[in-house]
Amino acid sequence: MAETARKSFVATVVAGSVVVLALALWKLKILLALVFLAFIVAAAIRPAVDWLARRRVPRGAGILSIYACFAAVIALGLWIAVPRALHQVEAALGPDAKQQLTQKASESTGVKHDVLIAVRNRLEDLPRASELARPAAEVGVKAFEALVGVFFVFAAAAYWIYERDRAEDLVCSLLPRPKRKLVRDTWNLIDLKLGAFVRGQSLLILLVGLVLSLLFWAVGEPYWILVGSFAGVVEIVPVIGPLAAGALAVGVGLTDSVHTALFAGLCVLGVRLLEDYLIIPKVLGDAVGLSPLLVLFSVSAVGILFGGWAVLFAVPIAAVVVTLFDVIARDVDPADAEVPTVLFPARESDG
After folding, report:
1. What pLDDT sits at residue 148?
2. pLDDT digits (tens, 9 = 90+) for 66-105
3. With 0-12 CB in 10 A as exposed, 13-18 as middle and 19+ as buried, what is 119?
4. How far is 279 from 39, CA to CA, in rounded Å?
5. Largest CA distance in the chain
6. In three state form, how does the secondary structure of 230-241 look?
7. Cβ neighbours of residue 287 under 8 Å, at least 6 residues apart?
């Protein structure tokens, strides 16, 4: 009986420890998400840092120069787009816009009438300037928290570039010798996949946002820069993002005319076909090795389990899981797996 009691006590302690650890990790999910995002950022910029290091540029200077280029691109985009976007936002939220929508709705019928009424109702539901002024302090706190989060991600990414090799050596030292090479190759393959995916996805976001904004301007789409920027940003969300962009473009186009809505929808469709049949195969390739059905399932499952913000991590998480499954269950050799070149060669021996 003493032995049974001892085993029961040990089992209870182990089960309780697992529950406590799970609860602690759940409470720390935001921090863990930021750390995972830092690993992804590090994977994306590491080839550039290594490329500069081979040309005798210190790693620290290489990381700072990449961050500086990244900040310069964002600043340039904001300098070009923000003034026009603010003007379009003021036009969309002004009283004249609501009156025009009401007038157009009264003059139209069918689907266009319903869309115009829905857009007008959404505008009326938006908070007024006086209402927005009250929670200004709260908005400031949220903005500060977001800034701290961004700083944490980029700082952690920089440190991880330095520490990754040491962490890899530490993990491998705990394993039997025959498995060390397999673990290193798997680790590197995951890193290469995540880096290629992030760089390719960033290119797609910039390309889609720029091209669709110009096309919307050409066809006379109202608020063309806002709709085009939205279409670029939602490229982050696989499958669902492009559908939302197309629906928004058609809906906003209907506030002007049926022809504008039709042309806007054709613009989104054309860009999407260009992505699927030319850009993604040539630029991004099979970076993460996931089928569209698996991507859709991953996005839905992660969104349901962890909330909408976690959708950003759906594809990277699925890529890690699929890579581990291939190596462990299917005996795939990670050293022979191909990873597409996106801006930089996937493996040093390739270039």
Report:
1. 83
2. 999 888 888 887 777 666 665 555 555 555 555 555 555 5
3. buried
4. 26
5. 86
6. HHHHHHHCCCHH
7. 193, 196, 197, 200, 319, 339, 340, 342
